[in-house]
Amino acid sequence: MPMWSFQTDPEFQAKLDWMAEFVRTKVEPLDYRFPGHGAVYDVANAESRAAIRPLQDEVRAQGLWACHLGPHLGGPGYGQVKLGLMNEILGRSYWAPTVFGTAAPDTGNAEILAMFGTDQQKARFLQPLMDGDIVSCFSMTEPQAGADPKEFVCKATRDGDEWVIEGEKWFSSNARFAAFLIVMAVTDPDAAPHERMSMFIVPTDTPGIEFVRHVKVMGDDHAGDGGIHAYLRYNRVRVPLDAMLGGSGEGFKVAQARLGGGRVHHAMRTVGKCQRALDMMLERAVSRRTQGKLLADHQFVQGMIADSAIELAQFRLLVLHTAWTIDEIEAGRLPHGASRTGIAMCKVQMAKVYHDIVQRAIQLHGSLGVTLELPLAEWWGGVMSLALADGPTEVHNVQVAKALLRNAVPAKGLFPSEHIPTRMEHAA
Ligand SMILES: Cc1cc2nc3c(=O)[nH]c(=O)nc-3n(C[C@H](O)[C@H](O)[C@H](O)COP(=O)(O)OP(=O)(O)OC[C@H]3O[C@@H](n4cnc5c(N)ncnc54)[C@H](O)[C@@H]3O)c2cc1C
Q1: Of the N and C termini of the chain, which has fewer Cβ atoms inside 10 Å?
Q2: Are 368 and 336 in contact (CB under 8 A)?
Q3: Are residues 166 and 297 in the same domain?
Q4: Per the confidence metrics, is the pTM higher than 0.90?
């Protein structure tokens, strides 16, 4: 058996083939029937829900529902490499993750409910989430602080047999559609920085939750209040003691458990989105003529296509290798934390590769590329979000560098260990 294998077993390849055809013919049309960033999360929209239910049943019948969760967490558990291959297909369509029960942030929220939830919490919140009946929100970032949770001030104080949550949260995506929010709040301000906070499950209809406004991002419609990223104020919101998810002071630990997986899943879907942009470039190159020949016959265009394909191939290998390390950790063959650097690399690279490929795809489509008649302009609007959501690029870059520097050894002498005269001296 070769040490490195890039083959997919035929049985799973058949599932991937089924998925690719199903997403292309039955799911992608939903992107045009029910457009808009919020549409996939709007469980109150009877028409879109009626349209997706039979599709979700087909996915379940194929054993492909909620594949992000392993068997010990209640899912079929194909592992991260196979999930990576699946997410490449799902990343091509806005609706596909919802149809397959793997839409963020519900995936990460389901993971932490499965990992840290009590039986009661699982029955009340995880089960309907897994069934696709509700959606959820992860409410962590604050208006004055995002990248550094140590700056958070939203607090929860104990009052008899209740916790009282007070403070503001920023960019709580999908809160307007969510049945519950998972809120990170300071419970012990005097504790060590990573033990100051705890996580709470807060039903969205709890008195005191105020939507200051629904924030929009690039690409959202300017009219109406259609933004899906909530600016929330928690006005002495009271929850029972058993609303805490995980132990007191374990907020960081719970957040970390969801963020790593979430980042790599985004990267997997981004591979699919980039592939779709590359497919568009290829079609355009062999369809459009200028200066008496096809775009495909111009070297600049060939360069854009080659650069895109090479960057995508490199990124895809990084993502799949990182997925493999996560599977190896699960199997006990690699130590806990062995995937951390890979995940940070994926996070950095996904924003860059997506930026470069979508930019070239727009350029090759000329004026049509910047119109709203192609999906490219909307994808371009999402480029910067990829470099910010789940932590800005810089933070992950620093993490990669620090991991490498931790094992770096200073030169023994005055000159670097690769100093040629010194090496010649020793070689003599
Ligand atoms: C589309 C989208 C969806 C989101 N959804 C959610 C959600 O559902 N729930 C939630 O809680 N949050 C969500 N967020 C918020 C996201 O997690 C934060 O935007 C992110 O953590 C960065 O925080 P910030 O925006 O406050 O930026 P800041 O912390 O203000 O950072 C601003 C900039 O400062 C620089 N910087 C910051 N830290 C460092 C550092 N250590 N070293 C060097 N430079 C640094 C970087 O250039 C960074 O971009 C979402 C964001 C986006 C864009």
Answers
A1: N
A2: no
A3: no
A4: yes
